[in-house]
Amino acid sequence: MAPEMLHGQEYDQSVDVFSFGIVLCEIIGRVPADPDFLPRLPDFGLNTEEFRLKFCAEDSGCPEPFVRVAFSCCNLDPDLRPPFEVLEVWLEGLSKYLSADKPLPSDLIMDICQFVTQRQSGQVQQVNGQVPPRQTTQVPSPIEFSTPSLLSPPPEGTLLAGS
């Protein structure tokens, strides 16, 4: 769960990016997200220094740009996390070149490595010439999640699929 949610702050879709980053770290480290295995900070963020020491040795085989993608997703500042539109471009590029055993293009590496710096300096990342939108999500109350038709048993005598 993203730190801003745990602190009771307003949040948007960037909480999903944080969760995705944690999943990427689980894959890189081959460990569950449990704080006993995945190093966390007291403010619920990812301890990237400890993570790098434990799981990103030179012989780990994990490409540095992939680690940086994961870390950028886990940024404590939700405004500095990449939107999924940007992640899609990065991950497709990494997949394309790494699966073909080709060197990564320098512009892809630069985009990944400089993303947070660009966001901090006000240079917003663009995808296909457009700035990906940031939208605040209204969280429905638990009662809005329930759908009576899905929770109620079918009427007596109704044949179910496979019966």
UniProtKB/TrEMBL annotation:
GO terms for molecular function: ATP binding; protein serine/threonine kinase activity. One of its GO terms (biological process) is actin cytoskeleton organization. Residues 136-150 have a biased composition (Polar residues). PROSITE patterns: PROTEIN_KINASE_DOM (PS50011). Residues 1-98 form the Protein kinase domain. Residues 127-163 are annotated as: Disordered. InterPro entries: Actin_reg-Ser/Thr_kinase (IPR050940), Kinase-like_dom_sf (IPR011009), Prot_kinase_dom (IPR000719), Ser-Thr/Tyr_kinase_cat_dom (IPR001245). Keywords: ATP-binding, Kinase, Nucleotide-binding, Serine/threonine-protein kinase, Transferase. The keyword Kinase applies. Gene3D superfamilies: Transferase(Phosphotransferase) domain 1. One of its GO terms (cellular component) is nucleus. It comes from the Eukaryota. Belongs to the protein kinase superfamily. TKL Ser/Thr protein kinase family. This is LIM domain kinase 1.
